[in-house]
Amino acid sequence: MGFFMMTAFMLELAIPYDHWTTHHISFVVMYAFTFFFANFGPNSTTFIVPAEIFTARLRSTCHGISVAACKAGAIIGAFGFLYAAQSRDPAKRDKGYLAGIGVRNALFLVVSTNFLGLVFSLLVPKSKEFLLEEMSSREVSKRLHKV
Fold first, then answer.
1. 108 contacts 16 by C-beta, under 8 angstroms
2. From CA 123, how far away is CA 44, in angstroms rounded?
3. How would DSSP label each residue in the chain?
4. d(CA 25, CA 5)
5. CA dist., res. 106 & res. 17, Å (int)
6. pLDDT tens, position by position, 10-60
7. Angstrom distance (rounded) from CA 48 to CA 40
8. Going by C-beta distance under 8 Å and a sequence separation of 6 or more, which residues neighbour residue 140?
9. Model pTM above 0.85
């Protein structure tokens, strides 16, 4: 649900982007909804799912690797958006930055990234029917990762 709503809200920000340049408070509200729904998608995928799907013997190591990869992606995304959102027009560009694709196109890039997150989160194995103690056994672990 989180990735879907983030995709929808970012799309609503990107399509009529010129409208949002004059309605700043509405833009902030829409952007706040995007971050609210980020807690249902990426945050649960980052912190809850790894703790559930990895076996007990490898859980802390794999959870650490998973979180580190997500944090690295967040850093790349934050700095990447900063550079990508720069205008092609030198008069509108922040001083010292190269030409980017513009804010509107950068938002479309974020929309596609959110949609990919939605698709890939559907590929995560479901662990609802198992207790964490049961998942540590080899048989349940094999069944879980075949799904």
1. no
2. 14
3. -HHHHHHHHHHHHHTTHHHHTT-HHHHHHHHHHHHHHHTTTHHIIIIIHHHHHS-TTTHHHHHHHHHHHHHHHHHHHHHHHHHHTS-SSTTTSPTT------HHHHHHHHHHHHHHHHHHHTTSPP-TTS-HHHHTSHHHHHHHHH-
4. 20
5. 11
6. 888 888 877 877 878 888 888 888 888 887 767 777 777 777 777 777 888
7. 11
8. 130, 134
9. no
Residues 6+ apart with CB under 8 A from 109: 84, 101
Q: What CA–CA distance (Å, rounded) separates 63 from 109?
A: 28
Could you tell me if 17 and 23 are in contact, meaning their C-beta atoms sit under 8 angstroms apart? no
Cα 118-121-123 angle, rounded to 5 deg: 120
Q: Which residues contact 7 (CB under 8 A, 6 or more apart)?
A: 111, 114, 115, 118
Handedness of CA 116, 113, 7, 38 (dihedral sign): positive
